[in-house]
Amino acid sequence: MGPAMNAPKNPKTFHIKSYGCQMNVYDGERMAELLGAQGMTAAEAGEADLVVLNTCHIREKATEKVYSEIGRLRKHGEPMIAVAGCVAQAEGEEIARRAKVDVVVGPQAYHNLPELVSQAAAGTLALDTDMPAIAKFGALPSRRKVAPSAFLTVQEGCDKFCTYCVVPYTRGAEVSRPFAAIVDEAKSLVDAGAKEITLLGQNVNAWNDDAGTGLHGLILALDRIEGLKRIRYTTSHPNDMTQGLIDAHRDIEKLMPFLHLPVQHGSDRVLKAMNRSHSRDSYLRIIERVREARPDIALSGDFIVGFPGETDAEFEELLSLVDETAYAQAYSFKYSPRPGTPAAEMDGAIPAELMDERLQRLQAALNRDQAAFNAATAGRSCEVLLERPGKLPGQLIGKSPWLQSVHLMTDAQIGDMVEVDIVRADPNSLAGVERVKAAA
User: Fold this and answer.
1) How large is the angle between the packed helices 312-325 and 280-293, nearest 10 degrees?
2) What percent of the chain has pLDDT over 70?
């Protein structure tokens, strides 16, 4: 169908809508900085000259949702529309054939967004889905002002080729950003107001450099940055959970006691069919070592139910792994085939009704454990990083060391670290009271 010929020729305002993972949130922030550096200003979607849909290909029917959103935008005007992210990478020119869009840019090429917008303003479809190794980071502007908790991408791509996953095809091979570039960006984030930095990667614990520093060595370097109070990282792969990284949870005070380590299933046969490189037992042994290093650590995971061929007994193995691990929080999904992935060609599709039933049982178990973990926090005190206003006047919301949302009434400011007594635990959040400091 090609580009929309009525789109603004010289867009002055923009709106970025990011879907999916935290890396997309990071990418969306960087695209906003790129456009801001060109003199453009942010606006609401209905008022913006340029709307960027920063897409994710992981969720079910992700591509169709993008086309639906394009149609909705077209009903309310003729903004310039850019489709970015993993759907852009997977669909490429097909997006332009099916819908009126002006720019299609993949997740490894968004540093060219201003140039692509100029190309589209001249009336031609602007498309860039090249996948250079980390070239975009050198072209991005420096960070000026950020939230108290900021994201920092250190690694992109995936070499694991899980049979259900499109990431190796949309984000490319595993590539680590250079050590010095990461440290410099971390320092700039702290200078811009960040108190907490979350290191991001499709397999963030696969980060390494020619010196063999490893993610634990990188975290140790960031630990030395004055003004940085907290360090987190996500998402990790069990295959790259080194003893050095486990020991870092014991030795580095700024590294928060939280670990997102997806297992995906509890059956060895299903794990092998998924092409996961760990077994049930090897995963549980990693968890045991992590808890030995940091007994209070909060564990998080991802789970897929209804993978092709999953039997009742194999699903029960998944539930028993959940019972044994007791996750503080977790994400769970019904399997849905992704075109081009090996699992999409597998026999043994699970009926939708059975998938629904299994997902409900799994989520009931995960919700039970999350509520229990939160309840165990009641009566404790901890530092909370205040991040945003609450719904009530004088109420602020922050994060505990274990990544729980904490609500409290306070005269402190967003960005402050305050000592809080946890007085109530709800299933999805905590209520706290600021601890009064003793007089000097």
Assistant:
1) 10
2) 93
